[in-house]
Structure formats: structure tokens, C-alpha cells
Amino acid sequence: MSNLDFQPANDRYAADFGDRALLSIPPTRKLIVVTCMDARLNPSEFLGLKDGEAHVIRNAGGLAKDALRSIIISQRLLGTKDIVVIHHSNCGMLTFTDSALRSKIKEAHPGDTAISEAVKGLEFGPFANLDDSVRDDVSYLKNNPLVLKEGSITGWVYDVETGKVRQVA
Ligand SMILES: [Zn+2]
Predict the structure, then answer these.
(1) Residue 87's closest CA among 136, 133, 152, 144?
(2) Which domains does the chain have, with CATH numbers?
(3) Residue 1 scores a pLDDT above 90
(4) How far does residue 84's CA lie from ligand 1's centre (Å)?
(5) I need a surface site. Which of 55, 56, 97, 157 has the fewest CB within 10 A?
(6) Which pLDDT does position 129 carry in this prediction?
């Protein structure tokens, strides 16, 4: 089976599409979830979110800074209020440093000055402590003047061993 062979699955999905065509753009629970792109995480399932209820913004690590553009659009144009930041145990972001990844990229393209120039100073946002990374991201959002403060901003850790979330901020 090819990676692009998703037609059968999509046929089944579309056959059972129900009344999803009636969903509106603004998330009904006025909720933003910022979390990691890790393939093991299924935020809609582990948080019980239905289609149309929340914006789930995902990137490597679930970093708030990386999600800022989407958060602003979500709040200012689509009416969301509460923000939930969820990082997770065994995250890949705990396993490397900026300088190590920069070196790896440069070593893959020896002598390529465009690459070495492009990667210079690029920050990938790895973190050394999981709970601290969540607290830092919550503080970042609470202190960012562009983020609306009418809803709650909380931080959580998802455990890939148990599927449980626990609040840390
Ligand atoms: Zn991760």
C-alpha cells in the first residue's frame, strides 16, 4: 500500500459524512488547542473534541511561539477565547539541540553556502524540561499583548504511555 493510497478510507469517510456540511467556521467551544505534531497524539480523541468545536494548532513540540500567527487569526477573526497548550512525554523536542540540528543540516550539504547562511541563527525550539516548556509557553501567551486575555490560558502534559493529561500551568 502506497502512502498516498488513502482513497478507500476517504470513500468510507465521505459516505458517512453526515451533517458536517452544516458546520460553521467559528469553533463552537471557542477553544484553541496548541499541541505537538507527534503522530501518536490524537487530540480530538483524547480531549473528546467533535468536528467544528475547536482549533487544534499543531507543530513540532506544540510551541506557542510557532502557533502565534494561527492563534491571532483564531481569536480575532473566528471568536475563540480559551487556549490550552499541551506538550507530551517522550517528545522529540527533548532529544536534540539547535546547534546539533544546524550542524546536521550543514553536513548534509557540504560547501553549500546558501544552506549554511539559511540555517544560521535558525531556532528550532527544543526543550530540556517538559513541564518547564509548558509553563514557559503559557507565560509567553499570557505576556504577549497580541493574545486576548478574556479566556483562560492553561498548560498540560499528555502522557504517551497512558493517554492521560495532567495540568501543569
Ligand atoms: Zn512531540
Answers:
(1) 133
(2) 27-95+125-167 (3.40.1050.10)
(3) no
(4) 15
(5) 97
(6) 97
**Alpha carbons 98 and 89: distance in angstroms, whole number:** 20
Q: How far is the CA of 165 from the centre of ligand 1 (A)?
A: 14
78-107 pLDDT tens trace? 999 999 999 999 999 999 999 999 999 999
Residues contacting residue 125 through CB under 8 Å, at least 6 positions apart: 60, 61, 63, 65, 66, 93
Identify residues whose C-beta is under 5 A from ligand 1, the ion: 36, 38, 91
pLDDT at 66: 97
Q: Using the structure block, give the residue that is written with the C-alpha cell 494561527.
A: 70
> Residue 156 phi/psi, 5° resolution?
-140, 160
pLDDT digits (tens, 9 = 90+) for 91-148: 999 999 999 999 999 999 999 999 999 999 899 999 999 999 999 999 999 999 999 9
Both ends of the chain: CA-CA distance in Å? 43
